Amino acid sequence: MKRLLLQSAKEIYRRQPAASLSLMRVLERPTVLEDTGPNFPRKIFSGIQPSGSLHLGNYLGAIQKWIRLQNAQESVTFCIVDMHSITVPQCPVALRENIFEMAATILACDINPDYSTLFVQSTVPEHMELCWILSCLCTMPRLGHLPQYKEKAKMVKDVPLGLYVYPVLQAADIMLYKATHVPVGEDQLQHIQLTQHLAKNFNNRYGPTFPICQAMIENQDAARVRSLRNPSRKMSKSDLDSRATINIRDEPDVIVDKIKKAVTDFTSDVSYDPNTRPGVSNLVAIHSLVTGVSIDQVLEDAKCLDTGRYKMRVAEAVVEHLKPMRMKIDFHLSRRQELINVLQKGADKAREQACETLAEIREKIGLGISPVIPQSLTKLTEVAEPPTVDKHKVKEEVAIEEKSDMPVVPKQRVRLEKKRSAASEYRLAPEFETSVSLLPPVKKLSTVSAGVSTTTPSKAAHKLQLRMIPPEETKSVIATESEVAVKSNN
């Protein structure tokens, strides 16, 4: 079906190039299923790695969306995915501190653990158990096509297995809580598609268990937060240039210095055009997001300013917005035990749902020692019986295919070889020809009796040499052995 759609799109492209180009882009763009399945309540799951301090792009994109979902009284679960972070080498001391700093930052951004669930991934071991179960439903080619693996594999010399299979762990994070919606960026859409694929596979094999989750794409305004030094890229904490990223915990002087050195252009007025003026447009988007004022209003207020003075206005707005958050982060970090108690309480709450889901999964797939027989076991047994092969029919099909003039592609060649092997009436087991070599050379004692010469080897060690005999040589070998036996009897 997909091939027919692409062929039709190419036909339109041949006739109407301008219209077909957009159509082909729509066809080739990955789609995300929207059907969550029946009888699944709306649940939202989102995770974030503890890879250092949050930057302004994380806060304006992910965290603010979390706050809106929580305030809308949604059922939300927030997870600090520390097991994802060890797919690349980590310093143990730094990793532990990053976990606490990330938790303190999330709480400082007004995430209330009384209205949502906040926990650390490694404190709920059910994540890894479900990851293993899903790994048995996933294939290596399916994981090898994900672009995130290809990008990260270029950064390390020896690619760890965890970097290859971590999308399955991400799917387990989502499915363990039967989440129906996941806030993600566009770069994570293929991971959501993998989650949908695994959920459908499990449901088809063992019965309805998981919803088909939907992706909640981050708002476009937050996606406009770009690097201060290279506006063509998104703001990232992995950027080698520290001046490209504004961290939540940066001191006011540091924030002002980074914004003053932000890359713009030679035009002095302030306007918003991401295509032709990405640097200035990035500052306008940041100003709009931290103040809550529309972009049009920001441009109206900055009519009489050049880019130099406008940078100072943006810096003041960012410092003012982040100041109370920075104070709250320091407050939570100074009370480490209270922070641990909050995370432990969230882990206990999350594990109730995780244990319930995993108990259902074990029951359906037959794991454990429960006396209840899984319902799908009979169906699987019936399907698992090998089908009977009509050898005469297979011979006819192989003969027809051999006479055909159509080119044989690799997949067809594999199928043809399987049919040929099934059509063979019998297979000869590999036979071996033995020969005795004497090590070291031995003295031979020859005796002549009744015209027959015999040679007796000494007690030297014998070395047995084996050689596989092809089936076509088997008859000649048997005949030779028969002749030798006749001569010896004579």
Automatic annotation (TrEMBL):
One Pfam family hit: tRNA-synt_1b
Catalysis performed (reactions): tRNA(Trp) + L-tryptophan + ATP = L-tryptophyl-tRNA(Trp) + AMP + diphosphate + H(+)
Record's signal peptide: none
UniProt family annotation: Belongs to the class-I aminoacyl-tRNA synthetase family.
PROSITE patterns on file: AA_TRNA_LIGASE_I (PS00178)
The organism's place on the tree of life at top rank: Eukaryota
EC number of this enzyme: 6.1.1.2
Subcellular localization(s) per the UniProt record: Mitochondrion matrix
Enzyme class, first EC level, given as a word: ligase
Presence of keyword S-adenosyl-L-methionine: no
Organism: Glossina austeni (Savannah tsetse fly)
Keyword RNA-binding tagged: no
UniProtKB keywords: Aminoacyl-tRNA synthetase, ATP-binding, Ligase, Nucleotide-binding, Protein biosynthesis
UniProt-listed PANTHER family: TRYPTOPHAN--TRNA LIGASE, MITOCHONDRIAL (PTHR43766:SF1)
Full protein name: Tryptophan--tRNA ligase, mitochondrial
GO CC annotations on file: mitochondrial matrix
MF terms in GO: ATP binding; tryptophan-tRNA ligase activity
GO biological process: mitochondrial tryptophanyl-tRNA aminoacylation
Free-text function comment from the UniProt entry: Catalyzes the attachment of tryptophan to tRNA(Trp) in a two-step reaction: tryptophan is first activated by ATP to form Trp-AMP and then transferred to the acceptor end of tRNA(Trp).
